[in-house]
Amino acid sequence: MPEGTWLTALFTDSTGLFALFASAFVSATVLPGASEVVLFAVLKAFPERALAAIAIATIGNTLGSLTTYGLGRLVPKRDFEGRAVAWVRRYGAWSLLLAWLPIVGDALCAAAGWLRLPWLLCLPAIAAGKLARYLVIAQAAALF
């Protein structure tokens, strides 16, 4: 990316990494955040920051999913059986490997919280799925 482009100007110093964290966090909630686009842009502007960018995106997105998990815990227990709840009942914390999926991932995290799965069991599965997605994005950024 040539010096002086709008992308480089947008992501000077730590601004880009902060924007990436914020976007990744928000993307893991029901709000739109486009963290994949922001990660791709950071990687194109600063390829030397790849490891930091992937780590920050993964941490931000994982924390966002844990927020959704926490919100699910706040919902009173009642008889309810949606698809996400059934999936989490069947596969437990392992189902959260799919927490990176749009819409479905939010429902899985909320269902895990609602079912009161231990968050320490959920955390590695959520983080692993998020990391895998961001590694794919990083590989695409390196190719294009």
Strand percentage lies at: under 5%
What separation lies between the terminal Cα atoms?
12 Å
Average pLDDT confidence is: 90
Sequence of secondary-structure elements: HHHHHHH
Oligomer: single chain
What is the number of helices? 7
Overall geometric form: elongated
**Count of the separate structural domains:** 1
Total beta strand runs: 0
Share of helical residues: 55-70%
Plain-language structure description:
This protein has 144 residues and is mostly helical. It has one domain. 69% of the residues lie in helices and 0% in strands. The protein is built from 7 helices and no strands. Helix 2 runs parallel beside helix 4. The longest helix has 25 residues.
Keywords:
144 residues, mainly alpha, 7 helices, 69% helix, Inner membrane protein YqaA, transmembrane helix, transmembrane, DedA_domain, membrane
Summarize the structure.
By secondary structure, the protein is an all-alpha fold.
Any chance you could write out the topology, listing elements then pairs?
Elements: H1 6-10, H2 15-27, H3 35-45, H4 50-74, H5 83-91, H6 104-114, H7 119-143
Helix pairs in contact: 2-3, 2-4, 3-4, 3-7, 4-6, 4-7, 5-6
